[in-house]
Amino acid sequence: MTKRRGSPLRVALAGAGMISWYHLTAWRNLGEQVELAAVCDPDEKKARSRAREFGIAKVYTDRDAMLASENIDALDVATPRETHAGWVEAAVMHGIDVLCQKPLTPTLAQAQELLRKVDGKIRLMVHENWRFRPWYRELKSWIAAGRLGDLVLARMATVNSGFLPDASGERPAFVRQPFMQHEKRLMIAEVLIHHLDVMRFLCGDLRVIAARAARTLPEVAGETMASIFLETAAGAPIEVMGTMAAPGCPPRAPDRLEIIGTKASAVFEHSVLHRLGPDPVEIAFDNEKGYQASFDGVIKHFVECLESGTQFETNPSDNIETLRLVEHGYWAAGLER
Question: Which of 39, 95, 102, 226 could form a disulfide with 187 if both were Cys (CB 3.0 to 4.6 A apart)?
Fold first, then answer.
């Protein structure tokens, strides 16, 4: 479906939590291409705060009331994961295209069932923004150009202390996103899902061959560390690992990524991307600017594909493969047997 309009794309936002600020900033950065028509959140105070900040005319606390009242072209879903399917199904009833935050649904089976209900009735894209970070886009261009050669191995890690009390006794990750403390599928499904998607983006099709995970903090419902061992279609080993309960580490820190090829190697650490080998390159990035840039990239891509009719990079079929790795990771780690 191609949508070309003389007037701006009318967009509504579902969810006014912490992450919505980055969504709305990205929409605003598109200028006159879009009109932010409405925001909906069961917490009216939060919804009104976002509406004032971004000049949004309408505020709703009820999903069905907003969708019935507003003439909306596209819906941006930034609500808790357990509500995603309900929002998408409601949008289908109104013929509204959707950009839905990851994960599409809490489990692979639920996502597959949702896609059967959507069945081409609307255009649906999953907001998996990690792969849109500028350093990963640059690295992908190196791989696509053959600068690294054939993949030999790769590993990606995120290590920080966000789940641990800081000097004030607060746990920074839970101050920022309180739901995480009570999320039973935590380190793999909430955090490393991003890294699994990046590795799929960079390395191609993957399969899980082993995993280990553990719940190490009694105050936290879900697993707080995990290592997932994968391989490419050609058998190259891949590792994705992380913890947010590492004493002495900062509460937020950039990822570390290494990719070893037959021609050159690439390392991303301390917000600097290095290409090592016969044609060395070093590119420094601003981590905070890159964070917003990833939201900008996702939303710009969504709008461009709506206008052109081209396929979304993170369409549901693509995202299903990332969800499959998440499910297999839990199974291999013995957490869901």
Answer: 226
What is the mean pLDDT of the segment spanning 212-216?
A: 96
Could you tell me the CATH superfamily of domain 9-127? Answer: NAD(P)-binding Rossmann-like Domain (3.40.50.720)
- Token output for 63: 């999903």
Residue in 133, 261, 296, 125 with CA at minimum distance from that of residue 201: 133
Tell me the per-residue pLDDT of 16-28, one tens digit each, with 9 for 90 and over. Answer: 999 999 999 999 9
Q: Encode burial over 11-46: b for 16+ CB neighbours within 10 A, e otherwise.
A: bbbbbbbebbbbbbebbeebeeebebbbbbbeeeeb
Asked if 189 contacts 82 with a C-beta cutoff of 8 angstroms, the reply is no
User: For residue 37, is pLDDT > 70?
Assistant: yes
Is residue 118's pLDDT more than 70? yes
Rounded-to-10 torsion of CA 310, 312, 313, 316 = -140
Nearest CA-CA partner of 17 in 78, 62, 75, 61: 78
Element (H, E) at 315: none
Element (H, E) at 22: helix 20-29
Could you report the per-residue pLDDT of 177-191, keeping only the tens digit for each?
999 999 999 999 999
Cβ contact 261:142 at 8 Å: no
Cβ neighbours of residue 77 closer than 8 Å, sequence gap 6 or more: 14, 15, 84, 87, 88, 98, 99, 100, 101, 127
Q: Kindly report the CATH class assigned to 131-293+322-332.
A: alpha beta
Is a pLDDT exceeding 60 seen at residue 5?
A: no
3-class secondary structure, 242? strand
Q: What are phi and psi of 237, to 5 degrees?
A: -75, 140
Q: Any idea where the domains of the chain sit in the sequence?
A: 9-127, 131-293+322-332
To which H or E segment does residue 80 belong?
A: none
Distance CA 320, CA 312 (A): 13
**Token code pair at residue 30:** 């598109």
